[in-house]
Amino acid sequence: MIAHAPLPAFEFVDKVSDKAGKVPVIVAVPVARPAKDGDAAVAGPLAETLAALDLTALGASESAGSVRVTATGAAPATVALVGGICPEASADEFRDAAANVAREVDGTGARLVLALGIETAEQASAAALGALLGAYRFDRYRTDTRPAIDSIAVLVPARLLKSASAASQRVRILATNTWRARDLVNTAPNDLTPAEFAAYAIKAAKLPRVKTTSLDLEALKAGGFGGHVAVGQGSINPPHLVKVAYKPSKAKGHVALVGKGITFDSGGLSIKPAKSMETMKSDMAGAATVLATVIAAAELSLPIAVTGWLCLAENMPSGSATRPSDVITIHGGTTVEVLNTDAEGRLVLADGLSAAREEKPDVLLDIATLTGAQLVALGPEIGAVMGSEDVRSEVIAAGDAAGEDLWPMPLPAHLRPSLKSPVADIANMGDRFGGMLVAGLFLKEFVGSTPWAHLDVAGPAYNERAPHGIAPTGGTGFGLSTLLTFLETRAS
């Protein structure tokens, strides 16, 4: 069973001092901030440390978002200089700067004080969230661990203390569930099989007004979930479909979320190149995000019903694996000719979308690491959104508010004929060019008239590069903040 590392304690404060004790203090300040500004809120040796530094001179060559830890001699405090931050900086800039600071000082066991010159409650919340996300670590498989950050204090003006503190619960819940999604993505696939994922989801979602249901292989066969059965039949680890339903009293509507949960994707008989398999433990990021979103909505007691569908399978080659040219039947009766077994995510999503729409939600969203074409089109940091124009616009707006980059993409009718099959209702592959859009057109077949949007997050869900801003190397939790903001907007 997955065990999560605890988040550091954090608080908003309007005054701070480095109290005598065994925990070292690191204070983060903007490099261009004159030492005298704001020092009334920083007492004791911390103030002495700041006064001893010519921050303007030190910061002359600092780039935006950069962090440099400066030794302070005999003083009991250390200073982390943060480039590119000023009172006019956006909330996202404060968030990413705080994340960079936390990542830089992780391993010290210190109390981190963010004295970044915050002027608004939005900046305060963003800095706190950034610090908590930057402090993320995944040590499950390491024997050489370092001390985590002891605690985080965000320095705000006294006039903002009440409003900033009121937002602390959301900040912590969002950070905790982002860590949850990241941990799931980073867990090795031998430890996170579909059955293990299902068991984890059932345990994690034991919350008031949340009910979970898990369908195993026999139940999937009986229910006609041919996508799950076909994708999972080549593996010794059978598929599961988990429904996690949060239903508050007097709910203001109902949103269904469907997540792709391929716990490892070899490509099946249409096998991937070896190099392409190295990150395929991340192919369940959509399901991890959906689970984390439903849990966050329940923990925040949002007045909106949310049903999450986790479409879990392992895609492996074997003598029992699905073959190219096999015909399968998706839940609801649509037949699909499987032309490429590496286009498996859309098959389990088709099952999930069909089951979700039967409950007649007001809106239906799915999120998936679905196509390599998404990376080709938009790169590693921007997700794509397709679907009903009004819902697509809502999702884009939620992403903007959440600080996650999403881009609207079309579903061109002229690409739909490429999905025609001579033997079944539809094929699982079409034109190579525009492959991300073709995948969206395939999914559209299974939502009926339900307002719907599809998020393809193949790039931003897993960061293969060096950490930057709130994105660590590995699982990022991308999409959770957008989905939660979408739910909050709908519930308001």
CATH architecture of the largest domain: 3-Layer(aba) Sandwich
Low-confidence stretches: 34-39
Task: Give the assembly state of these chains.
Answer: single chain
Total beta-strand segments: 21
Q: What's the CATH C level of the largest domain?
A: Alpha Beta
Radius of gyration: 24 Å
CATH homologous superfamily placement of the largest domain:
Zn peptidases
**Strand percentage, roughly?**
15-25%
Please indicate the count of domains.
2
Indicate the percent of residues in helices. Answer: 25-40%
Number of discrete helical segments: 16
Distance between the termini: 36 Å
Q: Biggest sheet: strands, sense, closure?
A: 8 strands, mixed
Provide mean pLDDT, rounded.
92
CATH topology of the largest domain: Aminopeptidase
Shape designation: elongated
Q: Please state the structural category.
A: alpha/beta
Instruction: Walk across the major sheet and give the strand order.
Output: 9-10-12-11-15-19-16-17
Active site: 272, 346
Family: Belongs to the peptidase M17 family.
Domain Cytosol aminopeptidase: 340-347
Organism: Rarobacter faecitabidus
